[in-house]
Amino acid sequence: MSTTFAIDPARRPSMPAPLARPELEVVAAPRVRRGRPRVVLASALVTGVGCVMAAQLLLSIGTDAEAFTAHRLQAASTSLVRQQQVQTEAIEALGAPQRLAAAADALGMVPSVSPAYLRVRDGRVLGAAEPATRAARSPLGHLTGH
Questions:
Q1: What residues contact 116, with CB distance under 8 A and at least 6 apart?
Q2: pTM (whole model) above 0.90
Q3: pLDDT, tens only, 44-63
Q4: I need a labelling partner for 143 at 20 to 30 A (CA). Which of 33, 45, 54, 83 fits?
Q5: Cα–Cα distance between 146 and 137 in angstroms, integer?
Q6: Does the pLDDT value for residue 21 go beyond 90?
Q7: What residues have CB less than 8 Å from 146, skipping those under 6 apart?
Q8: Most distant CA pair in the chain: distance in Å?
Q9: Helix/strand number for the chain, H first, E second
């Protein structure tokens, strides 16, 4: 088959015409500014990190200040509780029977040897009341030091 094409030029398939190539021009590369956007991005990143660190530092300082305040208030509360306990014990000691007997003796009061009681609902006096004298010994004398 190839020989028939070689002999008969009319039957030979025609070769496609070479395509015309467009003319090529040298174009200058576009100017790309890579320096400025990187600097802006880097400065924005550094500024952002700095702001985050400053905020964290301020929060840490605030938290520490609150912790010191809480500790100081707890110490003050403990001190006040101790003072209250001491004062309560002092008040209880002043109300003890031997202290009351000593205070009454200092005021010139003497204990009654024959107590009498007044029944309020009917106004009746129970017991025989006799005036007390200084010569009578106090039943609490051993507690008051007399």
A1: 125, 126, 127, 128, 129
A2: no
A3: 999 999 999 999 999 999 88
A4: 83
A5: 9
A6: no
A7: 105, 138
A8: 174
A9: 4, 2
